[in-house]
Amino acid sequence: MEFTLTLIRGAYTECEKEGRFLGRLDHPAHKDGVEVLRGKARAGEYPAAQAVFSSPLIRSLESAYAIYPEASITTLAQLADFDYGALAGKSYSEVIADKLFEAWAFSKKLTALPGGELPYAFFSRCSQALREIAGCARKYGLERISVVTHKLVISAMLQNRSMPGHPYCDYHPDYGGGFVTRHSDRGGLSVLKKL
Fold first, then answer.
1. What is the pTM of this model?
2. 3/100 Cα distance (integer angstroms)
3. What is the mean pLDDT of residues 62-76?
4. In the prediction, which pLDDT does 169 show?
5. How far apart are CA 157 and CA 43, in angstroms?
6. How far, in whole angstroms, is CA 71 from its chain's centroid?
């Protein structure tokens, strides 16, 4: 089965405006960021969707309702942001200076950040989210689905199921940006266009 899957990064938060890593911290979307999404939606910049999925975090839900105000939004726990553990809420400069990060970054083992998520577990749950969405498309015969989630979730879904060999950072959308993709059971995801 094939369907169009639009992956959208939600609006920014006050914390993200300050350059802080949020991860699982549940902060609301910034009102200015939400208004930008509403404006883009009114201008027709987002494809129509028969079903809309969202991360359960409030910033994604607010963004999903701003883009698709008439939709019934389905939340999936697997679409939640990466868990930075003890580093959540810190700025880039604080993270770089943090001894916990230094020990993790230079470790020869693939481990979780202190109190955080293992990278391979994160990739695995992003793949699981994609499988659940594809299952819904098959069950209900859906042709157009949108997902409002986080930058790293979008990157992980595309890196896992799209064109291996592309750098992970190729799939980092701006706030309110994303990718229109085509999902195929045989070929995974292929990017049709960037939003």
1. 0.91
2. 43
3. 97
4. 53
5. 27
6. 19
Residue 72: per-residue pLDDT? 95
Question: Cβ neighbours of residue 159 under 8 Å, at least 6 residues apart?
Answer: 123, 166, 168, 171
Q: Two tokens at 63? A: 């963004």
Cα 170 to chain center, whole Å?
A: 14
Does the pLDDT of residue 166 top 80, yes or no? no
Q: How far apart are CA 125 and CA 127, in angstroms?
A: 5
Mean pLDDT of 79-95: 90
